[in-house]
Amino acid sequence: MTTGPDLLSLSIVCPPPGEGGIEVRPIVNGRDLLADVLPGGVGGSRYLGVGPRYLLGQDGPLHATATPHEVRLAWSGCGVEMCCGALYVTVRRDGEHVVWAGWRDPANQDFHLPELRFTAGQYEAEVLRAGEDRSWEWPAAVVRRLLEAGLRGREDWLVRWDCELEDVWASRGEQPDQIHVLLRHPPDRADTDLPWAQFLITLPVSADDPSDQAEHLEAQLTAGDPRATAELCGGDNPEQVGYPWP
């Protein structure tokens, strides 16, 4: 692409609700990597960037370390990787540089893309800047972020009820004034194959201060057994752990 170090910029694209999801678009040397440099997914489907909630942030996967790790940058078509494709790259720190290499698309075995090499200082500064950009968040997304941070910071309340926090999310397109909390009982243990139940808790979001709402919802959730007011929404033989289907 260039004879010198590559330059990275991360653009967060936020279309109107109902017109597409929020994407992180990597801009390399002034060109949209997903749109201009790459030909698109299988069958001509264009690549859609992964959302900022998963790609950015203090512990986001774009941060580079000496240990190489694979990052999913985009998906394509129907969303099933082996059918329509997805874009992965391996990120690693190499001295004063950050390297993107080992590109792959599960739906395209002949996929190739040259190695990219960024100056570590410029790269990390851009990843941090993009991670601090919250302009794409709507009110429920702000409350969701604060609530999830609070809940994950005190998982003792779940240990008491033998549960695991699987996810906390908000949808901009559907019910944008709600937050959803997903729990699993008992927690997922890789060395066992036991019955389990999955619970969904839906929480309303108002126009009040996001910090106050997150604090209130955290106190509400941790006051007692969260399964008591939750909806059974999944599992493997949940009746064997005391939660038969309605």
Secondary-structure blueprint of this entry?
Layout: E1 8-13, E2 23-28, E3 31-32, H1 33-37, E4 47-49, H2 52-55, E5 69-76, H3 81-84, E6 86-94, E7 97-104, E8 116-119, H4 120-132, H5 139-152, H6 156-160, E9 164-169, E10 178-185, E11 196-204, H7 210-222, E12 231-236
Helix pairs in contact: 5-7
Task: List segments where confidence is low: pLDDT < 50 over at least 5 consecutive residues.
Answer: none
Total DSSP E strands: 12
The major pleated sheet works out as: 5 strands, antiparallel
The separation of the N and C termini measures 59 Å
Basic shape: globular
Brief description of this entry?
The protein has 246 residues and is of the alpha+beta class. It contains 7 helices and 12 strands.
Any overview of this molecule?
The model has no long low-confidence stretch (mean pLDDT 90). The protein has a five-stranded antiparallel β-sheet. A four-stranded antiparallel β-sheet has the order 9-10-11-12, covered by helices on one side. It has seven helices and twelve strands. It is globular, with a radius of gyration of 21 Å. The longest helix has 14 residues, at 139-152. The chain is of the alpha+beta class and 246 residues long.
Keywords:
single chain; 246 residues; alpha+beta; 5-stranded antiparallel sheet; 4-stranded antiparallel sheet; 7 helices
